[in-house]
User: Which sequence fits this backbone?
């Protein structure tokens, strides 16, 4: 389903200036990458200036690129998020269908068992089910990562990285500190 941005630009495309058409064409063709790009990067790809990108965005109803990015963040699917992969993993293992103590489906299928580390740690009883659930989710995620690490795809990726002439690491926002360590 096209985003509101794509629909607006496509509806107004005929009345845009040649420069705005270049910007619009690039942005429509690269909607999935816009969240990572600056106005200057978009301008460079479209063969224009950052000011022209801003002018184009204002002409289609956005204050600036950040305004568009906020809209796109809410509209686009982001399959690369860990929560999406975790949800898919839960569905594939049937963990979303197990009843909890209230008879309602829980996320892990595991209950706070007597003698568990959570129960023995002096955690208040009201918080135990949530902590048990968190622990089970963490363990399931770790097991899934180890399964991925044993796959042929992982071995190929590791080999390519190890044998590459150069590897570029991108860290944005919360991952920037991690990327600086490389």
Assistant:
């Amino acid at each position: 389903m096209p985003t509101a941005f794509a629909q607006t630009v496509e509806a107004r495309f005929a009345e845009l200036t040649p420069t705005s058409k270049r910007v619009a064409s690039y942005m429509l063709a690269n909607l999935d990458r816009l969240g990572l790009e600056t106005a200057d990067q978009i301008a460079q790809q479209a063969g224009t200036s950052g000011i022209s990108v801003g002018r184009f965005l204002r002409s289609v109803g956005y204050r600036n690129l950040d305004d568009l990015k906020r809209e796109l963040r809410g509209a686009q699917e982001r399959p690369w998020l860990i929560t999406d992969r975790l949800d898919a993993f839960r569905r594939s293992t049937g963990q979303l269908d197990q009843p909890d103590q209230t008879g309602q489906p829980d996320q892990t299928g595991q209950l706070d068992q007597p003698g568990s580390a959570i129960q023995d740690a002096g955690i208040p009883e009201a918080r135990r089910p949530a902590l048990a659930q968190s622990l089970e989710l963490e363990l399931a995620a770790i097991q899934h990562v180890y399964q991925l690490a044993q796959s042929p795809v992982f071995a190929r990726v590791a080999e390519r990285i190890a044998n590459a002439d150069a590897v570029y690491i991108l860290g944005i926002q919360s991952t920037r500190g991690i990327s600086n360590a490389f």
